[in-house]
Design a protein that fits this description.
Radius of gyration: 22 Å
Number of helices: 5
Number of strands: 14
Order of helices and strands: EHEEEEHEEHEHHEEEEEE
Structural class: alpha+beta
Length: 299
C-alpha cells in the first residue's frame, strides 16, 4: 500500500518564473521538490518524525505569466513591481524579475507512513497549516483548497484509487519529462543539446500555391504535444570545497550551472501509471549532476 498527500489547488502569487538563466515560464522542478523537502525538514521536528516525503507530481490548473505585449509590439515585456523610493525620493535601480501567478495541485508520496487512520485528520490539518505559512517557487501562498491523504494499491485489480488521484488532478495539465526526445535528436541527428531543444520548440511556417494561385499558409512543429523548456537541476562546474562565510559550514560548496531539458504538459487522463508523473532527486556524482527526474526514466 502506498500513501500520498494531495495538496489541492495551491494558489501562489508572484512566484519566480525565471526558471533558468535563459528561460522564462513555469517554475523550475527544483523549486517544487525543494518545497517538499522543506516540509520534510519541518516534519522532522515534530511527532511525525520518520515520515519521508521524496516524490512529487505537479498538475497546473492556471498559469498567469506577468508579461505584456502591446498591439503593435513584436516582443513581450516583463511587468515589473513598484519599488519603494530612496531616502531622497528618487527611484532605486530597477532589476527586472519575471513573475507568475499560478494554481497547482501537488501529489506527494509518503514513505514510512505508519499513522493510524484516526490520526489522518490531524496530520492533514497540520500539513495544510504548514503549507499556508511557506513559500513555493519564491511565491506567496494565497490559498490552499484542501490537503488529503490518499491510499493507493499498486497490486489492486481495480483502478479506483488511481482514478481518484487523476480526478483530483483535473482540470489541469501534469508536467512530465521528455528528455528522451532530446537524447534521440542528439544521437540520430548529431546535434548538441540546445539545438535539439530548439528543434522541438520552434514553429515552422510554410506556404503552398494551388493552380488558382491561391496561397495557403500552414504552421507545424517537429512533434505533437505541449512541449516546454524546463530547468531540472544543476551540474557542478568546480571542485567540492568550502567557501569563506558560506551559510552551512559543514556542507561542501561548489559552483554550478542550470540544466534545461524538455518537459511536456499532458492531461491527467493520459497518464497510464502513477510513476510516470512522479519526480524525485537523482544525484550522479561521477558526472557532477544534481537532477530532478521522472521515476520512469532510469538512465
Amino acid at each position: 500500500m502506498r500513501y500520498f498527500i494531495l495538496i489541492s489547488h495551491l494558489k501562489l502569487q508572484n512566484a519566480n518564473a525565471m526558471s533558468s538563466p535563459y528561460t522564462i515560464g513555469f517554475p523550475a522542478m527544483t523549486s517544487w521538490l525543494g518545497g517538499v523537502h522543506a516540509i520534510q525538514r519541518k516534519l522532522e521536528t515534530t511527532s511525525y518524525k520518520g515520515i519521508t516525503l521524496d516524490k512529487v507530481a505537479i498538475s497546473c490548473h492556471d498559469f498567469d505569466l506577468q508579461t505584456y505585449r502591446g498591439k503593435s509590439d513584436f516582443v513581450n515585456s516583463i511587468i515589473g513591481t513598484a519599488n519603494p523610493l530612496d531616502k531622497d525620493g528618487s527611484r532605486p535601480a530597477f532589476i527586472a524579475e519575471a513573475r507568475c501567478h499560478l494554481d497547482v495541485s501537488l501529489l506527494v508520496e509518503c514513505l514510512n507512513f505508519n499513522l493510524n487512520p484516526d490520526d489522518f485528520a490531524d496530520f492533514e490539518n497540520y500539513i495544510k497549516q504548514l503549507v499556508l505559512c511557506m513559500k513555493y517557487a519564491g511565491g506567496d501562498v494565497v490559498d490552499v483548497k484542501n490537503c488529503e491523504i490518499i491510499k493507493f494499491d499498486d497490486y489492486s485489480d481495480n483502478n479506483r484509487d488511481f482514478n481518484k488521484i487523476l480526478h483530483n488532478l483535473m482540470l489541469g495539465h501534469v508536467l512530465i519529462e521528455r528528455r528522451d526526445l532530446v537524447k534521440n535528436t542528439m544521437q540520430n541527428e548529431q546535434k548538441d543539446a540546445l539545438d535539439a531543444i530548439l528543434d522541438y520548440l520552434k514553429i515552422t511556417h510554410s506556404a503552398t500555391q494551388d493552380d488558382n494561385s491561391t496561397i495557403t499558409w500552414t504552421s507545424s512543429r517537429k512533434t505533437n504535444g505541449w512541449l516546454v523548456p524546463i530547468a531540472v537541476g544543476f551540474q557542478g562546474i568546480s571542485d567540492l570545497g568550502y567557501a569563506k562565510n558560506q551559510r552551512d559550514d559543514t556542507t561542501p560548496h561548489r559552483f554550478a550551472e542550470s540544466i534545461v531539458t524538455l518537459g511536456e504538459f499532458v492531461m491527467p487522463y493520459r497518464i497510464k501509471q502513477i510513476d510516470d508523473m512522479l519526480w524525485q532527486y537523482r544525484v550522479d556524482l561521477e558526472n557532477n549532476l544534481y537532477l530532478c527526474q521522472n521515476l520512469i526514466i532510469t538512465n
